[in-house]
Amino acid sequence: MRLFPKTALFLTAAAVSGVASAYEAGDWIVRGGAVMVDPHEDSSAISVDGIGGLAGTGVTVDSDTQAMLTVTYMAAQNVGVELLLSTPFEHTVETRGLAGAGLADVELGKITHLPPTLSVLWYPLDAGSRLQPFVGAGVNYTAFYDEKVSGEAKSALGASNLRLDNSVGVALRFGVDYLIDDCWSLHAGATWAQISSDARVDTARGTAKVDVDVDPWVYTLGVGYRF
């Protein structure tokens, strides 16, 4: 899954000059493909009501790949407004460091989320280039829902009722489009998203809490069509 950045370099190396025109004000570009969320999480220690923080503990979150849809409106020849959408992501959350508290680490459960991201993008190259790199920034909103506690966590910790707060944060986006002709293009991109959430789960020893900065890299790869 970590080949997405290499794909962007390949597209850059493969670019050649041609007659396809660059994006113009008023264009709509719709892209479909794949998107991977690769968390680079940093969590606080797990704390339990009545016990306090458990030093050396935390949680980890795995990656997931889903279908991508982006819609971009070119407000000017070099400026676009993009909405990045996807099918729901599902991640496994695991505990770490519980041995110090006399417990074994477990798969805590699975979480589902949707992270729509709205960005303003700048395309610096002129109309004579098939290659159209872009950079931009925007805002990410991540809605968590359908949190499920694993059977392992229920048995080992008496866990139930896992829940996470929704998140709003900054997003930094960059990538490249390669124009095949006046309508079709190839796309590769990456986004760093600021996603932070407070997670809570009820256990036999009390409610456990942990603050998680997920802060994933989001890689996109697909095909675009311009209207």
Short synopsis of the structure:
The chain has helices at residues 4-14, 151-157; strands spanning 28-38, 42-43, 47-48, 52-53, 58-61, 64-76, 79-86, 89-96, 107-114, 117-122, 131-149, 160-164, 167-179, 184-193, 196-203, 206-213, 217-226. It has 227 residues and is mainly β. The protein contains two helices and 17 strands.
Structure explained in plain terms:
The protein has helices at about 5-15, 150-155, and strands at about 30-40, 40-45, 45-50, 50-55, 60, 65-75, 80-85, 90-95, 105-115, 115-120, 130-150, 160-165, 165-180, 185-195, 195-205, 205-215, 215-225. By secondary structure, the protein is mainly beta. It has a single domain (about 5-225), classed as Porin. The strands form 2 sheets. Strands 1-6-7-10-11-13-14-17 form an 8-stranded antiparallel β-barrel. Strand 6 and strand 7 (about 80-85) form a beta hairpin. The radius of gyration is 21 Å and the shape is elongated. The chain starts with a helix and ends with a strand.
Please tag this protein with its features.
about 230 residues, mainly beta, eight-stranded antiparallel barrel, six-stranded antiparallel β-sheet, 17 strands
Helix-strand sequence:
HEEEEEEEEEEEHEEEEEE
Beta-strand residue fraction: over 45%
> What is the β-strand count?
17
Number of domains: 1
Structural class, by secondary structure, is mainly beta
The geometry reads as elongated
Q: CATH class, anyone?
A: Mainly Beta
Largest sheet: 8 strands, antiparallel, barrel
**CATH topology annotation:** Porin
Round the Cα radius of gyration to an integer and report it: 21 Å
* Mean pLDDT rating: 91
Give the number of helices: 2
Distance between the termini: 30 Å
How is the largest sheet built, in terms of strand order? 1-6-7-10-11-13-14-17
Q: Mind telling me which CATH architecture this is?
A: Beta Barrel
Helix proportion range: under 10%
